[in-house]
Amino acid sequence: MRRVHRGSTIRVGDSSHVVLRAVFGLLFGAVGFLIGREAYVNVFSIHFSNQWTQVALLVLAPVAGAMIGVLVAPVAQSLFE
Predict the structure, then answer these.
(1) What's the number of domains the chain is made of?
(2) Assigned domain for 43 exists
């Protein structure tokens, strides 16, 4: 028995959800990046004297903030809708 797979169709409502999710992802990612950078400047850089730890936290703190912001975006979108 053969099965015919149909391609999925995109409805207009679906594309608006994708655009809204992308906007929320960009917004919360940028805010998370800035919060991570401020956390590095005001919290992490004062307490670590090792140069390698400083360099690692200089990169990892903003990236971790951006990732957390992107992960929070779907929850914020569901509250917005």
Answers:
(1) 1
(2) yes
Q: Say if 1 falls within a structural domain.
A: no
Give domain status of residue 2, yes or no: no
User: What residues contact 61, with CB distance under 8 A and at least 6 apart?
Assistant: 36, 37, 39, 40, 44
Is 70 part of a structural domain of the chain?
yes
Q: Summarize pLDDT for 18-69 with one digit per residue, the tens.
A: 888 889 899 999 999 999 889 888 887 777 778 888 888 888 889 999 999 9
Q: What is the 3-state secondary structure (H, E, C) of the chain?
A: CCCCCCCCCCCHHHHHHHHHHHHHHHHHHHHHHHHHHHHHHHHHHHHCCCHHHHHHHHHHHHHHHHHHHHHHHHHHHHHHC
